[in-house]
Every structure is written in C-alpha cells, then in structure tokens.
Design brief:
By secondary structure, this protein is an alpha/beta fold. It is 40% helix and 22% strand. The chain contains 13 helices and 14 strands. Strands 8, 9, 10, 11, 12, 13 and 14 form a seven-stranded mixed β-sheet that branches. Strands 2-1-6-7 form a four-stranded parallel β-sheet, sandwiched between helices. Strands 4-3-5 form a three-stranded antiparallel β-sheet, covered by helices on one side. Strand 12, helix 11 and strand 13 form a beta-alpha-beta unit.
Amino acid sequence: MGKKIGLILDSTCGLTKKEIEKKGFGFIPLIITINNKEYKSGIDINAKEVLKKMSDRNVIVKTSLPNGADILKAFNFVLKKFDRAIYIGMSSKFSGTNNAVRIASNDEKYKEKIFVYDSEYSSPWTSLYINEFESILKKYDNIEKIFSILQKPNPFMVGFLSPGDIWWFYKGGRISKIQYLIGSLIKIKPILKVADGEIKKDKISKIRSLEKAINMMCQLLEKTIENIKSKDLNFSFVMLKSDNEKLTNKIRESIVNYFKIKKENIIEMELSPEQSVHMGPNSFGMTILVPLKQLINKI
C-alpha cells in the first residue's frame, strides 16, 4: 500500500472549496437553507453573505448535512492524488456530518482508503491546524499513529463565544420565548464555553452589557491560559471577529489591554458560515492556539 495520505475537510472549517482543493484535498460542503433556498457552504455562500441575509430577523435560516453525492465527490477527488485519505470534520457532538461521511466510507470502493477521525475540533482550530495536518500526513503513514497525534490538542481547545442577539437563540429553539423576552429586557449577553467538542451547557455565563461580556470573556480565557502555562506550552491568541467592524475593534483593544500584548500577536479570523447561522450578526469569540508540533514533542 502506498504511503501517501491526503486530507478531507468540510465547510465547517471556515475555508472554501477553492482554498481546500488548491491544496489537493477533498472538500465537503454542508447545506445552508435560507428562506427555503439551499446553498452549499463554502461554494455558493460564505459567512459574510449569511450574516448579511440574517440582518433581516424574519429570515428563516438553518444548516443541514451535506449531500451524499458531494461526500463521494470529495472522496474521488482526493483519491486521484493520494492512496488514502483522512476526513477531519467538526466534532460529532456538534454535527452529524461525521457519521454521514463514515457511512459513505463503508462502501467497498472506499474501505481501507477513506478513514474518519472522530474529532473534537471545530472552527477555528481545524483551519488553523491545516498546515500542521499536512506536515503530519507527510511524515507518518500509520493511521492509528496519526489519529493519536490529532487527539493531542483536545485538552487545550477551549473557546468562548457570544451571540450578537439572543433572538437567534430563540429562533433556533435554544431558549424559550419567556427566556428571550426577559433576556432582551435586561440586555443579557450570554457567553458560551466550547470544550471537549461541545458547548458546555452548565458553563453558560449570563452577563449584562457588552463591555462586561467582553471583559468576562477575557477573564475566562485567562484561566485557560494559566493551564497551558502550567504545562510550559507556548500559544497564540485567537479572536473570532464580528461582522461589525466597531465591535471587532473594541474586542481587539480589550484583548490588547487585558493581556498586555500587541495587536499583531492576535490571530484574527471569521466565524464559519455554519457558526454564523447559529450565532447571528454581531457575534464574536476568543480562544487560544497551541501548536500541534509542540504537543507532539512535549506530550
């Protein structure tokens, strides 16, 4: 069996089909439906376009699993260049795509060729690690070994998100009408903790006012950083930008002032189209990135 191993990603990584296929890797688009019209994420629509449409509160928007045909297209595309390929998607606790890809990979045509990694990743980590994924796939040819390496960042993938408007939480069925009405009245800004590949429902902070929410997010991030420093690991700050430029500037300034760092040391990126659907306009977040290469050597 050849030693070349390729990569398959889906649109939840935040990159487009063009960006992924340029590297020779497979791309699987999830479906975003807006007012009954279907779009293929990362092909027909991006995060900015999703959020622009969501400026209308009456819009009906949702995400769904990719088409089976698009999954197979990704398999066939990557296998033209590589002998085998690993699919790395969003955590199965967030999305059923992982299972859909696994079912497709069970076809005799793809057995021992397509391997599905049951990750705890989500955007931004998947897209930020892509270059390191490439290096690992070039260096190792044992699937189990690669899977064990991919697990190493799991304890350090902790992030915090805040929706711009809890209206979208209400529309998505995450909170009741009463919770929405009360939250809107007293201007609640929830902060969601993402860890272990899921939103920790028992760790949702309910903060009043945007300024306090940003400061609280910095405090929560600081606790994560303390854990990383205790293990003598290096890291980078990551800011998930809002579609609102003024808000993005305020968040950037808060991180700079709170952590006493230069703005050039912050990695800035947008939410994925799928995250945008669930969080809505004016959403933002913070996390950290521990280099995978460092984890291979230290853990």
